[in-house]
């Protein structure tokens, strides 16, 4: 079994962009399983020879009555349950949102290592203003830009350290 990495976070923070970055230029195929795992997308890669499987989730939405949103939440929970490590993605330009905090509280209940990817830090001109809020969550923090492929190496070096 390859080391399993789950990407979680509220919608629109850049989870899928990060997912695609991590598996780009990899030979392996993105799997689309049928049935209950339909909303989780799996991709394989390797980090300096160490294989991993990364799971993208639709979005770890807040509790809601909407069945579709609850289904998305359930899929994210399943991804966390099966993961060896979790990349928690937030939007570094938007600051710490209530939905981020709610997800973080859920992640605290797992004993899996959590790495905070502060995404959309495309440049260092005025986009770092919220980092201090994210630091207060007290987990290892990685400013990055999934869009531009900046800052991924320090994150993956640490995520894959125990793989
Ligand atoms: P998801 O809903 O969390 O999977 O988010 P997506 O990967 O679909 O990205 C949501 C939006 O954020 C898209 O318009 C992306 O182009 C944009 N986005 C993702 N990563 C970055 C980034 O590093 N910088 C910027 N500026 N935009 C990004
Ligand atoms: Mg997505």
UniProtKB/TrEMBL annotation:
It comes from the Bacteria. Keywords: GTP-binding, Nucleotide-binding, Repeat, Ribosome biogenesis. GO terms for biological process: ribosome biogenesis. It comes from Lujinxingia litoralis. GO terms for molecular function: GTP binding; ribosome binding. GTP 1 binds at residues 9-16, 56-60, 119-122. This is GTPase Der. GTPase that plays an essential role in the late steps of ribosome biogenesis. The chain holds residues 1 to 163 of 440 of the full protein. Residues 3-163 form the EngA-type G domain. Associates with the 50S ribosomal subunit. Belongs to the TRAFAC class TrmE-Era-EngA-EngB-Septin-like GTPase superfamily. EngA (Der) GTPase family.
């Amino acid at each position: 079994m390859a080391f399993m990495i789950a990407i979680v976070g509220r919608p629109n923070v850049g989870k899928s962009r990060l997912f695609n970055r991590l598996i780009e230029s990899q030979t392996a195929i993105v799997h689309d399983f049928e049935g209950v795992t339909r909303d989780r997308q799996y991709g394989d890669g390797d980090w300096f020879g160490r294989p991993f499987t990364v799971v993208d989730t639709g979005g770890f939405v807040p509790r809601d009555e909407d069945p579709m949103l609850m289904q998305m939440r359930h899929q994210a929970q399943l991804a966390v349950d099966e993961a060896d490590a979790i990349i928690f993605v937030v939007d570094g330009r938007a600051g710490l949102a209530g939905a981020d905090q709610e997800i973080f509280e859920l992640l605290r209940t797992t004993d899996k290592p959590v790495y905070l990817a502060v995404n959309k830090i495309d440049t260092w001109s005025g986009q770092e203003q919220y980092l201090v809020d994210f630091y207060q969550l007290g987990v290892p923090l990685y400013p990055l830009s999934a869009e531009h492929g900046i800052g991924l190496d320090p994150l993956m070096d640490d995520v894959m350290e125990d793989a």
